[in-house]
Amino acid sequence: MQKPADCPCAHSAHADAFKTGSARAAELKLQPKMAACGRVPLILLLTSQCLCVFLTQGLKPAANVNVHPPVIAINRQLKIGASNAGSVGAASSVSQPKRTTGWKLADEEACREDLTRLCPKHTWNNNLAVLECLQDRKEETEIATDCNHLLWNYKLNLTTDPKFESVAAEVCKSTISELRECADEERGKGYLVSCLVDHRGNITEYQCHQYITKMTSIIFSDYRLICGFMDKCREDINALHCGSITTGEKDLHSQGEVIACLEKSLVREVEQQDQPHPIKEDCKKAIMRVAELSADDFHLDRYLYFSCRADRERFCENTQVGEGRVYKCLFNHKFEEAMSEKCRDALTTRQKLIAQDYKVSYSLAKACKADLRKYRCNLDNNLPRAREARLSYLLLCLESAVHRGRMVSGDCQGEMLEYRRMLMEDFSLSPEIVLVGRGDKGLVDSLCQNALQALIQSADPGADYRIDRALNEACESVIQTACKHIRNGDPMILSCLMEHLYTEKMVEDCEHRLLELQYFISRDWKLDPVLYRKCQNDASRLCHTHGWNETSEMMPPGAVFSCLYRHAYRTEEQGRRLTRDCKVEVQRILHQRALDVKLDPELQKRCMTDLGKWCSEKTDTGQELECLQDHLEDLVSDCKDVVGNLTELESEDIQIEALLMRACEGVIQSHCHDVADNQIDTGDLMECLVQNKHQKEMNDKCAVGVTHFQLIQMKDFRFSYKFKMACKEDVLKLCPNIKKKVDVVVCLSTTVRNDTLQDVKEQRVSLKCRKQLRVEELEMSEDIRLEPELHDSCKKDINRLCSAITFGNAQVIECLKENKQYLSHMCHQKVFKLQETEMMDPELDYQLMRVCKQMIKRFCTESDAKNMLHCLKQNKNNELMDPKCKQMITKRQITQSTDYRLNPVLRKACKADIPKFCQNILNKASDDNELEGQVISCLKLKYTDQRLSSDCEDQIRVILQESALDYRLDPQLQLHCSEEITNLCAEEAAAQEQTGQVEECLKTNLLKLKRDACKKEVLNMLKESKADIFVDPVLHTACALDLKHHCAAVTPGRGRQMSCLMEALQDKRVRLQPECKKRLQDRIDMWSYAAKVAPAEGFSDLAVQVMTSPSKNYILLMIALAVCVLFLVGLLCGRIIKRVTRELKDR
Question: Is the pTM of this model over 0.70?
């Protein structure tokens, strides 16, 4: 505590006492009933300033003043008080005035009229009660000028008389002995009272406390009575025109306005930093000290007291004075409509001073004193003292202690809550925000954001949403319905609100307020108290954070959370993982951030340009991130990296996509609840959603979201977590420098296929990768958009031919297959390649596997995936076969019949026969277009010639049997006989079930066929039926019993059973079934006609005709006789030639 060597303020005040005052006394009036009220002891936190002790004695009023308050009279009263502490104590108590025998203000003629008019009679015997009554009179009430000067003289003499110190020494005897600092003060100079005022908060002795408190209220009625204040602020008062030091220019008792003016100037200086007359440092300290001294009793802040008297009566009538309670009450009503503007302005100034120095709030400084010391919040040597005093610094320090689980007293936490709410309600209390709001427009955005971020850090609404009054009011209904299970004020209420963002329970106003707050919370991990508490040890261990107030330059807040989530998804092998509790919280934050791009600071910062360029129209929920993902290849590198990393993270834990999870809640509960309940997702949930994308529980929003994520995954194989983890080593080894997932899948699939075809001992692609590769291939087959190359090639064809078909379920692909003859050349090539792949691996045929799913379970559970279609074909005519599946099998059979390359089994069985017999056809073929069944037709002809290998013959027989039942399985017949079928066999062709009726119709109408190409195809059918009766279903059905009775021992194939039936027909001892006999006779006639129309094209063809001819035995006998004759002629000619040759040699 400084001891002033001289106190010019006293002499100036003394001089002023002898001059006439101005007419401003109205500002110091108070209602009589308030003057009559008893005052409660007030405890003030006073630490730095001193109360001036005046040494002047024997001062008397000037001769021209018609009042005479002699010093002797005052001294006599002080002596009486010194000799009887009880009487002083009583005298200092307004509620219990005690009559004394000394000089009384009530006896002075200058004040008698005013006293009678303004003060209750029971106060007249107590000078201090009279002084308080007249000093705090109503604003509109005037008192006489002479009385004004008398009161001033009385206050001056009272505070400058050395016996005032004697009274204090007697009344505060025990207190002085406890306060060593005060006991050591030099006596006789007034320093003792100054020390007691400084330690007023520590005074427990009732009478001493009352005495010191009363004297403080007297001194604070005029700034010139405060020791040192005028010395330190004289120049600033004049420079800022806050009032005059010269007596007479301002009313003697309205000097509270001077202090208020200085306080406002101090606040403006902090907010604007461009004041023409900056306040000197000593004066700043004096101003803050005065504010601190007046912290417990709002009467001591004279300007605020007079500005808010009516408002105090209106809002805080029942609030007891002391410990800053009236201040707090007025603060709470600051924004009510009934609050006067003058009072609101004074309160705001007071709040701004509190923001600059927390000690200006008595209740906060008192309640948190021990905690501040305990957590060393004011011992940071790296920070300037001014910053330590800032309210924001105090709040940050204590909030950090609370977040770390440390004990902070309940009273302190209550005070912190009040002032955090105060900061949130009025932005003007944060000078940084006001300052940047006036800056250059180009700098405002970043500076303002930083200032707002600092405000949110100080207020910490994440710990208690009620601090943000706007949020509290906007979200009250949502909290009552959606979050009623959470305790009021719990930090998890904000998380609950975020979980219900964009749901039916959320209201628009709450949504806006919530996103505004989350914008800042997302930029500092410490603003989420639950996250901070659960992850502080992990952050220290893994991210090297230490101090609660670590500077942003060393470790930006956003970097800490980035570090945490990088470690959240590390495997056990990688080590350095987060604890379970911390990981849960990190995942919670990630889920919340996914709701809006603005909640991800790094994403917004790096992608601002791209958001404006590509996504300016995408303003709906979640659309901005989807837009960035859609334009991934077009983004700048920094943004591309961030979006890529986020997408990669989503692939591992799709629950981060909160909007998608909300949309898919039904299907998750029905089909994926097992994997959804897992703490660690690792991509299982998305895989499940894809597999169940077409379940009845799947709604449009969920299906669109899942498909979008699948499409995004196609851009980079890393976006498929399970695929990445299973195949990353294989990709690096076999497919380096390839990033697109579809290209990686093709690369690995090609490698697997080549290894399989070459029968290598060890596959180059690992087993776990092959399994996941299969999953990826199956998923890609579901939607043409998941195969970008095919989709791009067929985009125009899709718009032209399949515009009414929705994507998904492979419907568009099926549409292209059905319209294959109308496709553009490039699209046709891609579709053919796709069909070739699907026929080699039917499991990739999404439509087949979907439609026949149940039939596969019924008939083909033991079949290999690659033989699935073959198994289904074998069971196609089973009575238990589902009609839809049967129809799908027929479609695939028709597709296979168009080209041998689409029939892998045939291709393998006839590998040697095709180039041997059909090379001329292969020479004309292209790699990507169908041969329209030409090779198969070629092989059919060779089958009738019985020249095929056994394996190939077996496969051709199957094809012949299938095509004999359904003309659509014979592309050449369908191509050349389309008109004839339409004109002659329309009824048979329209039949839903094809059992060979169309073929029989064409055979029956053979003579009516006009086109040679069609006639040739029908004759080929007849020729084929001669080779195998099974190729002729009508004949086979008619002769089934006869085959069983007469030809059971005959091996099928190579025309043997047909020959058996022909012999039985000629044998008169055998009686065939009438239908069989009729059909056989018809066939004989047809074959005879065929022989005439289409003679044998070669010896093999001739041999077949002979062997199948009814006169086979006769023909064979005649051929044998001819051979014998030739043999005999040869022998005879040979002997003659030999004899002639020998005779010639002998010559």
Answer: no
